[in-house]
Amino acid sequence: MKAKQLRKGRGAQKNPHNRFLKHIYEFRGDFLEFCRLEGEEADQVKTEYLPIFPKSIVNKVDSPDVGMSYSMNPYQGCEHGCIYCYARNTHEYWGYSAGLDFERKILVKTNAAALLESKIKHKNWKAETIVLSGNTDCYQPAEKRYKITRQCLEVFWKYRHPVGIITKNSLILRDLDVLKDLSDQQLVGVNISVTSLSEKTRRKLEPRTASLKKRLKTIEVLSANGIPVNAMLAPMIPGINSHELLKLAKTVSEHGALSFGFTVVRLNGAIGQIFTDWIKRAMPDKADKVLHQIQECHGGTLNDSRFGLRNRGQGRIAEQIHAMAKIARFRYFSGKEFPALNTKMHEPYKSGQMKLF
């Protein structure tokens, strides 16, 4: 079976209906006719950056599966276009679709740094690691223009506050100077996502992300500068990249990662429909097999929302993935440890006591 033509540079291939909207709005007429006459498709619309001004930026994370207590996201939506991204569903709360809208309509929180500073200098705030990119990547292409993540890192450094970062973009190396300052005081830890050792697979799963070569180089450079790196080998998708887990772990360890984490893919909300449409276009010969294997990991469905199981999966295939991870930690990460971050420096800087010295 021949693969259907894919929208170049995009993950999602359509905009599914937003479950919160009563009506469906579609663009028709002159614009689509112009695209047809010019020999282009309507999906070539450029990414839009839409400034917003939220009242708060730091979010309490209640889920026991995520491994963080607080997160913040300078951007909503993500141009990286990862087809499996669990954050897609959040775009529906803003009135957009979890499909192409998620990749093409990026909400920019222009006041993020000011909101962060107000939060962490509040008299009742007790320092706890705040993770940049608990939802969408803080170093996605928009960051090159707006530099909001850079501004937030400078706030963390100003108040000597611990920060975690999750990204799959080598743009993080632009901020190596402030990261080194933070790391010298054990105030930062970085999580670099590496999903496959195959560029062909990477381009299909994550069309606008940094290449494998750049990601490994990023781990190497950060590690060489004393900045601790955990590799996120996630998600593991049966039939697509799960067989790579051991080699992935070995490779990131050789490039300096101190630890690794992983999840078993789950396709919650609109993502099930988006992923199913995508894989039938991108990998038609294996689509049914992959979908059935994902279902096997979640009790016969594409998603299991139960805490403790939703990211781990269950059943034979999930057990095999966990067994490989156990072997990988023993073989490639023995004696390595990702450090806990320092929460003790923040209070003196918040109160201004350090100005006395």
Give the key terms.
single chain; alpha/beta; 7-stranded mixed beta sheet; 3-stranded mixed beta sheet; 11% strand
Beta-strand proportion: 5-15%
Based on DSSP secondary structure assignment, what is the total number of beta strands?
A: 10
Structural class designation: alpha/beta
Q: So what's the overall shape?
A: globular
Strand sequence of the main sheet, in spatial order? Answer: 2-3-6-7-8-9-10
SSE string, helix = H, strand = E?
HEEEEHEHEHHEHEHHEHEHHHH
Give the helix level as a range of percent: 25-40%
Mean pLDDT over all positions: 89
* Helix count, DSSP H or I runs of 4 or more residues: 13
- Report how far apart the termini are: 72 Å
Low-confidence stretches: 23-43
For the largest beta-sheet, the strand count, sense and barrel status come to: 7 strands, mixed
Q: What would you report as the Rg, rounded to the nearest angstrom?
A: 21 Å
